[in-house]
């Protein structure tokens, strides 16, 4: 994984020293994404910058990478991993391409030369890249947006980067807020509208799209389409097919020339990945797989079982460790850094995020990076198999707004009432939801319930999952750690998308088809363990520290957040020691304490970028 940046302008020569310096400044702003190396390439019309985290062929995979043929120079800078590199390389060699390294970057460069803008169809993996063919710049992003790619225009110049902060290193581009900025932040954040970069004038290449700029025009094209198709297989065949796809996706993603580990919570998703990886390591005669689990100081003391979180992770992690003989580390996050890292997490993400869900992941990623460069995670399973409550509850299925934040009052209660009305925040969220639902790929003959559930699945892929993927990328890459997500394999998602609900949730059991596909891979008690979410702290000290920090923020008369919040509501609610854990305002994890943490992040973001 890496960081990419650059710009393209056909009206001037981009090889001058001032543009060279701009390219280096942009690269330096994302040094965290690539601590191993940096590079730059320039032509008359295009400049590419790169920061590298070396994973495959560390010695020869330097970027930007170029190839000259017939007097024409092709260049690429790339962030990601290709999991079909050997097969793609073999295909290209049969077409006459010659390779000099083992790096997937060289294979991608030649694939772009061969297939042009159609290249995405031939790629399996997670990627965002910029390819220059001597006449046009192609920016292309993977099917589900695992790797980020933002862009903006400075007059005639197209500027792009892995992160928004890097765009603002280009002369003439500065962070600005407009009406839609505040609607995005206050109405739908931590999620974002696909393609929107929140800052005024900043855009994101949407998942499964490419942007192509030539001297004549700039076009944005969708190159990947999820297809809704009839499912013809029996349940038994479905289970077998699913198992083959899942095991194949995990095995492909174990390729690495640097230390690799898995994240293990003891839940179904992470346990399947760990089981397959551990057995594959054993088969290859490699040392035992290394695994990590997460916890918080004194969580055993304060944990209380609930219908949402029926049991704790640690007994299940130990069960898996014993079963598969992994070399396991438990990472424990104290409450103080959990709060202190809230602002750094916002800086890493360039936006307010998922509060302590982000700051804890940032803490854990930094600890993992001390020993490993690559990790595999169970992210995305609940989105594609329907593990969340909104796939099951009638009121959520039929909601006119996003089901993970149906109760908008939990959000609007802390905001200035005039601002909520002026920005029409609830209407904005509802309209964005309805726009997205209308884009769902339809299947003729579905019942109303089936159609609603497919629409909820579409919202999950395009909003909830992309938010979690963004969180995972930004927290891990801020730590110089690459995290791979086997459940986001596009073959797997395309197949599971069309598995009927009565199979996915057979006999009324959530994700039963996945459980059955894992038969024989996992111990039976682990295979049938009820869903448990990302671990969170149960220590009341976290809420206390957040309250103190938010009070300190609000005691500053110059704090920009004063313009956004309802001080009376805060003083009578969150700041009055009356913590509300029962009303999540986003997803399932973010209730009262997380609202305080989010407001701390929001204020820091406004200060950082000079937004009022």
Structure, briefly:
With 612 residues, this protein is an alpha+beta fold. Helix content is 41%, strand content 16%. The protein is globular.
Write a structural description.
The protein is an alpha+beta fold and 612 residues long. It is built from 25 helices and 17 strands. Strands 2-3-1-9-8-10 form a six-stranded antiparallel β-sheet. It has a six-stranded antiparallel β-sheet with strand order 4-5-6-7-11-12, covered by helices on one side. A five-stranded parallel β-sheet has the order 15-14-13-16-17, sandwiched between helices. β2 and β3 (46-52) form a beta hairpin. The model has no long low-confidence stretch (mean pLDDT 94).
Helicity, in percent?
40-55%
Question: What portion of residues belong to β-strands?
Answer: 15-25%
Q: Quick one: how many beta strands?
A: 17
Which segments are poorly predicted (pLDDT under 50) over 5 or more consecutive residues?
Answer: none
The structural class is: alpha+beta
Shape: globular
Rg over alpha carbons: 24 Å
- State the strand order across the main sheet: 2-3-1-9-8-10
| Termini separation | 34 Å
Mean pLDDT: 94
Main β-sheet, in a few words? 6 strands, antiparallel
Number of helices: 25
């Amino acid at each position: 994984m890496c960081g990419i940046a650059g710009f393209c302008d056909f009206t001037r020569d981009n090889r001058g020293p001032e543009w060279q310096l701009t390219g280096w400044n942009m690269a330096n702003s994302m040094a965290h994404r690539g601590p191993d190396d940096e590079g730059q390439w320039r032509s008359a019309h295009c400049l590419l910058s790169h920061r590298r985290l070396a994973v495959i062929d560390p010695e020869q995979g330097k970027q930007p990478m170029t190839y000259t043929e017939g007097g024409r120079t092709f260049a690429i800078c790339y962030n990601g991993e290709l999991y079909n590199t050997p097969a793609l390389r073999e295909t290209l060699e049969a077409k006459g391409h010659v390779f000099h390294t083992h790096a997937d970057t060289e294979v991608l460069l030649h694939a772009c030369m061969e297939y042009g803008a159609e290249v995405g169809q031939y790629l399996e993996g997670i990627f965002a890249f910029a390819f220059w063919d001597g006449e046009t710049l192609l920016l292309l992003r993977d099917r589900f947006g695992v790797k980020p790619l933002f862009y903006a225009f400075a007059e005639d110049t197209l500027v792009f980067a892995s992160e928004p902060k890097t765009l603002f290193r280009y002369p003439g581009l500065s962070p600005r807020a407009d009406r839609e900025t505040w609607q995005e932040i206050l109405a739908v954040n931590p999620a974002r509208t696909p393609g929107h970069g929140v800052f005024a004038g900043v855009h994101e290449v949407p998942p499964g799209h490419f942007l192509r700029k030539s001297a004549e025009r700039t076009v944005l094209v969708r190159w990947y389409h999820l297809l809704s198709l009839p499912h013809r297989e029996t349940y038994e065949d479905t289970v077998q097919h699913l198992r083959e796809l899942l095991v194949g996706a995990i095995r492909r993603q174990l390729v690495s020339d640097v230390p690799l580990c898995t994240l293990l919570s003891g839940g179904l998703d992470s346990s399947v990945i760990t089981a397959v990886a551990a057995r594959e390591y054993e088969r290859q005669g490699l040392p035992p797989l290394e695994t990590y689990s997460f916890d918080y100081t004194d969580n055993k003391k304060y944990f209380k079982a609930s219908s949402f979180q029926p049991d704790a992770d640690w007994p299940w992690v130990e069960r898996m460790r014993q079963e598969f003989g992994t070399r396991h580390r438990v990472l424990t996050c104290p409450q103080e850094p959990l709060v202190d890292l809230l602002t750094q997490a916002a800086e890493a993400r360039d936006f307010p995020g998922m509060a302590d869900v982000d700051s804890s992941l940032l803490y854990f990623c930094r600890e993992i990076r001390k020993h490993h460069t690559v990790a595999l995670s169970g992210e995305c399973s609940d989105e594609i198999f329907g593990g969340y409550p909104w796939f099951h509850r009638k009121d959520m299925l039929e909601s006119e707004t996003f089901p993970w934040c149906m109760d908008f009052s939990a959000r609007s209660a802390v905001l200035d009432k005039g601002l909520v009305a002026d920005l029409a925040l609830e209407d904005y969220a509802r309209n964005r939801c309805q726009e997205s639902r209308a884009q769902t790929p339809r299947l003729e003959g579905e019942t109303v319930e089936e159609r609603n559930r497919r629409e909820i699945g579409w919202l999950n892929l395009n909003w909830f999952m992309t938010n979690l993927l963004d969180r995972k990328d930004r927290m891990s890459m801020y730590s110089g750690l690459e995290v791979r997500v086997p459940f986001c394999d596009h073959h797997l998602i395309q197949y599971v998308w069309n598995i009927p609900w009565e199979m996915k949730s057979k006999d009324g059991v959530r994700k039963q088809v996945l459980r059955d596909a894992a038969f024989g891979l996992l111990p039976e008690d682990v295979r049938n363990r009820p869903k448990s979410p990302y671990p969170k702290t149960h220590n009341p000290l976290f809420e206390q520290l957040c309250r103190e920090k938010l009070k300190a923020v609000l005691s500053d008369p110059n704090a920009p957040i004063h313009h956004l919040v309802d001080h009376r509501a805060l003083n009578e609610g969150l700041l009055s020691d009356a913590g509300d854990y029962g009303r999540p305002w986003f997803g399932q994890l973010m209730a009262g304490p997380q609202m305080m943490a989010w407001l701390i992040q929001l204020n820091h973001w406004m200060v950082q970028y000079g937004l009022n």
